Amino acid sequence: MALRVHVDPGRCQGHNRCYSIAPDLFELDDLGMSSEIGPGMVPAELAMAARRAEANCPERAVAVVDVVEEP
Amino acid sequence: MTELAGPAVPAGRHPPVSDWASDFDHTDAAWIADPYPIWDELRRRCPVAHSQRYGGTWLPVTHELVAEVAYDHDRFTSRSVVVTERRPGPDAPPAPIGVAPPITSDPPFHAIVRRMLIPAFAPKPIAALEPFTRELCRELLAATDGRSVFDAATEYAQHIPVRVIIRFLGFPQSDADLFRYFIRRVMEEVDQTPEERDEVLGSLDEYIDAQIDDHRAHPRDDLTTFLCEAEIGGEKLSQSHIRGTMVLLMIAGIDTSWSAIGASLWHLAGHAADRRRLRDEPGLMDTALEEFLRAYAPVTMARLVAKDCEFHGHQLKEGDWLLLPFPAANRDPRAFPDANRVLLDRAENRHAAFGLGRHRCLGSNLARMELRVALEEWLARYPDFELADPAAVAWSGGQIRGPRQLPIRIR
């Protein structure tokens, strides 16, 4: 199992909480809206940061999901 | 500190509240002193309170209902966001723009104006203001040197956002006292008569117009010049649009951060264990800062009911006020376990101190920077301190809550 982060662009309002907690997982566009970097795969050492980003998004826009890695 | 700043707490011209569920008033002395038990009571009893005051006002107090209103731009308009005796009349600026865009704007115009301002408040330009802010905090603290008692609200917290915003707008730093005067009159003395209110708003407009004219004549690298030169759809912004946005930045950017800094210091002054913990574990600053913002969120917003509608069993009438108390949402035990306890290491904290939805505070990155730097510099210089006189602490009335008098004794 591995973790993947995803920002729902329909919910993000640019609070920038995820970006400030985990700048290696999220990036901001010109309007301050957040999205996951690339496919959003979370290196093991950033798993805690990913969970904190999810737990501190006021809009509940950040999701951390378990993904089954390809064999 | 200054005569212009006047008394910290408004006169309270309204009769005392008889029943919070049916007669609440956010300028009542009990609300000003300690609103949290009132909201706890209303959450059990209502959770949507109503008052005939201000011509009819509603108050939802749970996180769920506050969020519902914040996300609903059909039933609720942002045309006016400060509940006063002066309800916007039919000749007031219309809903899509409002008097202070974008806070008073509704979709779709809201997004257009907001988009224009967002880059100025992104993490990078805000980080560039940090050295100025840190130097300012050190200067303010240096000025208290040798004194065992001083007022952390009027001699420290208040000056930080005032001078940062003045720099941001490119207004004269010597106008800091005038800024504080306008803020008190506009945001705290909301129980003025409509005539008094028109007078203060008129003189504020005059002041801003003079600054805009000066920037038009002498353009420079600041937000005022940026707004003077900005275009929407190939057209320059109107004078009233620029003025409205400046009023917004002045008002929204100062009272609020001042309150957050003051409330955080008030908490630390009264809680020795938290003070020691934050001093000994500086790594806690990130979560502690968010917890102060949750527990002592300064800003209650407001909406006008856009059309007659039903809201959780209540019949709302077009033109009714609705207070949007983000500070009450932040104390809702269904959204935050141990909601009335301050936990410096609270790991899950989806607080709504900066609002929810499209009107999320534009200046949240700026406010967080100011709060963090103000606390870091304070704790570096004064690691141990207490309330000099708890009875002398005075909180502001109206929609922005924070200590306006905060005598601190340095230990």
What would a concise description of this structure say?
Chain A is of the alpha+beta class and 71 residues long.
List the domain count of chain A as a whole number: 1
Q: Any idea how many domains of chain B? A: 1
Number of DSSP E strands of chain B: 14
Q: Biggest sheet of chain B, in brief?
A: 5 strands, mixed
Largest interface chains and counts: A-B, 18 and 22 residues
Lateral arrangement of strands in the main beta sheet of chain A: 4-1-5
What composes the largest sheet of chain A? 3 strands, antiparallel
* Structural shape of chain A: globular
CATH class of chain B: Mainly Alpha
Question: Could you explain how this protein is built, in words?
Answer:
The complex is a heterodimer of chains A (71) and B (411). Chain A is an alpha+beta fold and 71 residues long. Chain A has one domain: Alpha-Beta Plaits (2-Layer Sandwich). Chain A has two helices and five strands; from the N terminus they run βαβββαβ. In chain A, the strands form two sheets. Chain A has a three-stranded antiparallel beta sheet, covered by helices on one side. A two-stranded antiparallel ribbon of chain A has the order 2-3. In chain A, strand 2 and strand 3 form a beta hairpin. The longest helix of chain A has 9 residues. Chain A is globular. Chain B has a single domain, classed as Cytochrome p450. In chain B, helix 7 packs parallel to helix 17. In chain B, strands 1-2-10-7-3 form a five-stranded mixed beta sheet. A three-stranded antiparallel beta sheet of chain B has the order 4-14-11. Chain B is globular. Chain B contains 17 helices and 14 strands. The N terminus of chain B is likely disordered. Chain B has 411 residues and is α+β, with helices and mostly antiparallel strands. Classes of the chains: A alpha+beta (71), B alpha+beta (411). At the A-B interface, helix 1 of A face helix 17 of B.
